[in-house]
Amino acid sequence: MSNKINETIKEVFTEMASALETGTLGPRIKIGLTIDGSEHGLTVMQEAVKLAQKNDNFDIVAIGSQVDWPGIENVVTTCEADNYKKMEELLASGYLQGCVTLHYSFPIGVSTVGRVITPGTGKEMLISTTTGTTSSNRNEAMVLNAVNGVAAAKAIGIKQPTVGILNVDGARSVERALKTLKENGYPINFSESHRADGGTVMRGNDLLEGSADVMVCDSLTGNILMKMFSAYTTGGSYEAMGYGYGPGIGDGYENNILIISRASGASVIANAMLYAYELASGDIIAKSQEEYRLAKAAKLKEVCESLQPKQAVAEQAIEMPAKEIVTSDIAGIDVIELDDAVKALWKENIYAESGMGCTGPIVLISEANHDKAVEILKAAEFI
């Protein structure tokens, strides 16, 4: 029997085995990897490919320099810039179902959902987001990042992912916005902080423990977190842990492109290819379209519009009321809105001071004025 016939038989049986395992019949999923540009050279790319080949559920296509790696298809390009063009062509044609690459520029409205292994418990956690810009408005971006993170989680098989909001500037506004979406019918499941006082807003301890399936933050913070989670055991020059910076996701975006860093090591790159395969298997494009459909039905546009900057109360000439002893506090106010919240109470002749509690910014008022102050701040959408 000729070698060609043997290879054909092997391919048929491989496809049959894959169909039995996945429940689908058809060509195997192909995941691309652009192999040029790493700070660690082609050696780390080859090592990553060998690690990824241990998972026999998908084929790997190396895009870039000419290489001769066993079992790997090689699409040769002339330069690093051509790698991106070829990757886009192969994705658009359907030849690739996903691709892992370095430093790709996504359009505004698209950002990436990273995936890490938390050191406190060994639990996996998605960080949404880590590169790209979902919106030029930070708080609006974080609301959209929550939708992106849920889409990624569902695509990799987490049916009801829990969502936490990292305690960065804007967290309380984002929390209110997401809770409004939920009240309007968007099916989001909030996580609970592992700290004693609980709540949806997550602290540093929750990052280490993986208190949520999806941790929502702005992309700059997420990028730093990815680098810390992936390289804290190596000193920083070699990213050794996790799955990389993840897929670009956004409303209407239809490519499964995942980002790694030039400092990413072999295990991270291999995991990124596995992540790409899981996203392709879970149809990330359909999942993200469905999440945005649900969010829009829950008045996503109106919720995001409510997050646009309001005219600062501070611009008005408001006289401070007579000073009182303040022994009661109101939490849940963004630090960037704290002074405006205080002045909103002054405007209603309630003495208030700004402060910082154990869990974040607070407004201090007298016990007698507590309930009325809460009503005023709620009406003004500070809490």
UniProtKB/TrEMBL annotation:
Native source species: Vagococcus humatus
Residues of the active site: 358
Pfam families xrefs: FA_synthesis
Name of the protein in its database record: Glycine reductase
Biological process according to GO: fatty acid biosynthetic process
Gene Ontology terms for molecular function: acyltransferase activity, transferring groups other than amino-acyl groups
